[in-house]
Amino acid sequence: MVAIEVMKEKSDSTIKIIRDGAKEKRVLNWNDKSCVGCGICKDICPTEAISMGALGAVYKGVVSDLKLDISTDCVLCGMCASACPFNAMELEINGTSTKEYPQYPKIKRSITLNQDACVLCEQCELVCPQDAIHVERELPNRETLVLGEITINKDKCKYCSICAEYCPADSITLIPNDDPTSIKPFSDIVVDTETCVYCKVCEKACPHDAIEVICYKCPLAVRIKTPEIYKEIKGQTIIDEDKCVSCSKCEIVCPADALVVEKPFEGELCIDAEKCNACGACVAVCPCQVLYFPPHTDVGQRPEPVAVVQEACILCGACVQACPIDVISVKRTNINMENVQSLAWQSSFERLKK
């Protein structure tokens, strides 16, 4: 039996591994632009054909190099492509991606949107770290809305910004959230009573019944309750699933519970705070933007060690690869697998548990 030669093509941003047989041609494609250097492909590879580069130095621009390399020891099994959370790896069999094979083994992750429940508030778009979500909405013309003391119930308010969009006097402002431990894009909402005309537009626009407006000078016709404006908003939320990394930030901030995200892994990201020197390499590489430095005010104080928003971390391990002093580790307690029937595949996926 004649062995089929495995060939390699490498450019500034891609690597192709090719095995062209008489009946089957397999091509493994890797794209540096999509790759974050998490190392999952390296950990799962049964032939140890994948090696990682100096990830921290690459992200900081110290060196100009690829995040990883693949040798011709690759057997083109596709385990790396099935496990990659960022779609940086793709295996083609006779010109068709294994993503098109419903029964091909993979690590499962998903995002589900209930378009009917969505209130088109744009919070998901604002917090998405990969620009995978875009909200298209068509607002009724403000000029056609009715004119008219204002109270906002902070317990009911979801900071969806719809009231601010409609305010004809631009009197409502949402305050950006600068708390790194919170995923929500806004921390407060304020009304400029100097410019507010108490027209009740915000009250009618609010989908959460959080605003009450009393207009003492308005004619009686204005005081009569009209249909809620938010019900007249038309549009849709569009999700690019190829860009989505399943961090669940969108699900966490959604005021309407319209999004459900299924993560590929369960577990915890662990940081040795005593050893961390706050170099920032992990923060630079994190694809979910969940690593941060807690603020401190004391001049000359030792930099605070890096911290993580656990609920939005996908446990990919890019920070582990980037850390130059090994103070970060990933503990994956469960791998969300689908269509994994062979013991070889199952044992390879189980290796991702740490």
Automatic annotation (TrEMBL):
Gene3D superfamilies: 3.30.70.20, 3.30.70.3270. Residues 24-55, 64-94, 109-138, 148-177, 187-216, 235-264, 267-296, 304-333 form the 4Fe-4S ferredoxin-type domain. One of its GO terms (molecular function) is oxidoreductase activity. InterPro entries: 4Fe4S_Fe-S-bd (IPR017896), 4Fe4S_Fe_S_CS (IPR017900), MvhB-like (IPR043256), Polyferredoxin (IPR053559), Polyferredoxin-like_ET (IPR052977). CDD domains: MtMvhB_like. NCBIfam families: FMH_DH_FwdF. PANTHER family: POLYFERREDOXIN PROTEIN FWDF (PTHR43193:SF2), PTHR43193. This is 4Fe-4S ferredoxin iron-sulfur binding domain protein. It comes from Methanococcus aeolicus (strain ATCC BAA-1280 / DSM 17508 / OCM 812 / Nankai-3). The lineage of its organism: Archaea, Methanobacteriati, Methanobacteriota, Methanomada group, Methanococci.
